[in-house]
Amino acid sequence: MNTAFHSCSSEKYWEDRIRQIFWIVGILAGATLTYTTRHFINGDAINYIEMGEAFRQANVRDFVNLTASPGYAVLLGLTQSLLNTNPWTEIPLLKGVNFVLLLIGMWACDFLLRSLRKSYAPLSDKGMLLPWFMIMALAYAMFLFCALVWITPKLVAPDMATFSTTLLSMAMILQIRENPQSYRPYLWLGVLLGIAYLFKTFFFSFSLIFLGAAVIACGSIQRAIPRITLALVSMILVSALWIIPLSMKLGTLSYGETGPLNYAIYVKAEGKGRYCPVILDDRPEVLLYKTDFVEKCTRPATFDPSYWKVGMKPVFDLKIHLTLVFEHALQICSDKPWLFLAVLIWIAWNITAGGFRFRESGTFVIPLYLVVPSLVGILMYSVIHVEMRYIAPFIFLVFLGVVLCLRYDTNHSSMKNGVIGAFGMLAVILVLLALSVIDQSIRGSISGGTKPTYKEAYSELFAVKDYLQDQGLQPGDQVAVIGYPPIYWARISGVKISAEIPNEKEMMSATVEDRKKALATLRPAGVNAVVVKGKEFAGLIAEGWKLIPGTRDFYAFTFR
Hints:
Elements: H1 2-8, H2 11-36, H3 45-56, H4 60-63, H5 70-83, H6 90-117, H7 120-124, H8 132-151, H9 159-178, H10 184-199, H11 202-218, H12 221-250, H13 258-266, E1 269-270, E2 278-282, E3 285-288, H14 300-303, E4 313-314, H15 318-335, H16 337-353, E5 354-356, H17 366-382, H18 388-405, E6 406-408, H19 412-445, H20 454-470, E7 478-482, H21 488-493, E8 496-501, H22 504-509, H23 512-520, E9 527-533, E10 546-547, E11 554-558
Parallel strand pairs: 7-8, 7-9
Antiparallel strand pairs: 1-4, 2-3, 3-8, 5-6, 9-11, 10-11
């Protein structure tokens, strides 16, 4: 079968063509999504934007955040300065950061594959592999699927950056395996792990897994000690750029409080937070947050969630962890069930055509370098909280490891079946990728059904801003929200969300008297208006709620 491919042209020719197609498709699809979804706003976008704004203004007090890592916010702050953005124009313009990060991720993917290419010939001695250009095509397709479907340029979030650092770190481990004597890949591994931490706190603890893989790749404990020490020191030096100011703000050594926060939310914690909001009413619950712990932020409750949990102690509960792992396994498999089903069918097809071999005499084989750390990463997320964008880099590496496990007998029929299966798997990935890109693009600009387009939803936020200004609210005035509606309207109008009624259902099920009492507690606290999103509030018009003109289901209750 390989002879047939070579008869058409050299394998180098096909590798170059596949790489060119990868860049063309990636740039076009990425640019399309960046543009068509430019009005989409995710929940934590404001946090990163306002951290970036604080960085641009050298406002250390607001920039040092116990929850969010600084790397992505720094990029946003630099882009804000470069493009001279303001709250009215920043969302569409800042999506350009994600497109640039996608391009960096594509380069990182190509760099990883080039590192793997050096090990391709030795692996071929253990049985016939797929032609390398077919491996490239499968890897490139899965990368684009992970980047454009699971991570996606529409999110103002650092996950595209961590995708790049994860792939580059793995490439350094492969280079260590090829040349364990050199100190350079160890130095770069440490720097990359430090950068990964600056984009996501998770990687500070997970870096131990990559460092452990590097020790194994080195092949000798004695040889590894000075080199891994270099990697560890370089990682700590880079990480110290954030650990030092973070620890100074908290008053104790800390590399981030995201872990304890998520543990308290999704698992179990005991004790009371050091900085708790004031409870103005208990049925329905009304909370007032102090606003002086930062100078400028739209919603103190969510700008730095860890701040309100400081002092609470995580409580280990094995039963809850096991339940979460099971639930997250189902969540992962059900997110894109047709893709996972296709992979299982493809694996079964290959088992009949060849087999999967992890064993290579005397060494920890390349597929396991890719698969094992990635499975550990997925598990570390699964015991607490999983989102597909978090684990997308690990899913990509697992898939790539599976591809490299394929071995076929030297007979023509075995390789032919393997190539047919690879083409089928490639077709499934590309079709699902194309459908997702089309769906996201349509959702961004073409209205259909009851859901507004991203642009329409974005316009509604400006309608809320206009309504509040018409009611006499000024920048700096305090407002409250019920539940967790989109809040970008508060940023563009300059008001601060200082209070909330967190449970929307509790508000709706309360008596008329209790609802009035709850709202009455807000006025003495300095709140001028309450905003909520939900069609059910149409039934409360008689109580003073008004549908905000230009929106489908934003309602406001004003005290003026």
